[in-house]
Design goal:
- With 78 residues, this protein is mainly β.
- Strands 1-2-3 form a three-stranded antiparallel beta sheet.
Length: 78
């Protein structure tokens, strides 16, 4: 039985396979690339944040919708 590309198969890979994740250099860069028609509620993107001499990836997500202000940092306890 064949699968279709929209079946969302479970792929075990050492990296995130969705190009929308990034990581992006800023929230603005993510929003410029991920146009509204490419967004879904719950979509997670990675934003590179500089902390001292280290770069870390902070995850953001489209929490309540798909408009620009809906892209907010993921936090624990919510």
């Amino acid at each position: 039985m064949s699968w279709k590309i929209h079946d969302n198969p479970l792929l075990i890979a050492p990296k995130i396979l969705d190009a929308r994740y990034g990581p992006w250099s800023s929230v603005g860069a993510a929003l410029d690339f991920i146009k509204p028609h490419m967004r879904v509620r719950g979509l997670t993107v990675g934003i590179v944040i500089t902390e001292g001499e280290n770069n870390i990836i902070q995850e953001y997500w489209f929490r309540g919708g798909v408009d620009d202000p809906d892209l907010v940092p993921k936090t624990t306890g919510e």
